[in-house]
From TrEMBL:
Keywords: Membrane, Transmembrane, Transmembrane helix. Residues 1-32 are annotated as: Disordered. It comes from Streptomyces sanyensis. Pfam families: VIT1. It is a multi-pass membrane protein. This is VIT family protein. It is found in: Endomembrane system. Signal peptide: none annotated.
Amino acid sequence: MSDERRPGDAGGAGDTGGARRPAAAQAGHEAGHGGLGTRLNWLRAAVLGANDGIVSTAGLVVGVAGATSERSALLTAGLAGLLAGSLSMAAGEYVSVSTQRDSELAALAQERRELAEQPEAELDELTQMLTDRGLSGAVAREAAEQFTARDALRTHARVELGIDPDALTNPWHAAGASFLAFTVGALLPLLAMVLPPASARLTVTVLSVLATLALTGWWSARLGAAPPRRAVLRNVGGGAVAMGVTYAVGSLLGATGV
């Protein structure tokens, strides 16, 4: 929010003289934390995307391995699953982020119109929002006037809408990140299945997938400041179940000659 993050504004409005410098420093400090939060969200999304690639591709190639030991069939199924999954993830992320961006742009356009058509009402609204956050009436009014004089649209976007106009998510970036994360994750079970000799394929794949799932579970828990043990068990357990079910189905189909 702008009253928290913009240097020298709301903090300075309630102080005098030299007190404005600490307020600006605090605002910059909080802005840095906001940037860190954004980066952590991207990193968490990348870990989860890679995790999707690992589990879905592992389930696919292990299922096919239950039905046949032919390397060409395993490679074909694995590559098809990798491409289908990565493109699906990218398309879904592009649509989702585009919808969010369109909504944010529409909200910003409406706020811009309201500021142009009824500036006094918007100033009163901003004053009330700052008052609701704990400022006294006089300080809130002075802060609202300073915010409005500096950049009214950015202030209302951050305080009223919770949108940072300078940090709207790019749908192409989001789609590319999802595509890359899924692909990297999917390559592990695919290579683990097709590179080793036939007698070791299944064992190598299962062990490498479970070890990687333990790592991604631990890492995602650390990013979310959650206990890692539970996250690791969920991740490993889910992957093991997925591979077990698909292998059983593949074996059944292979035994019946389907």
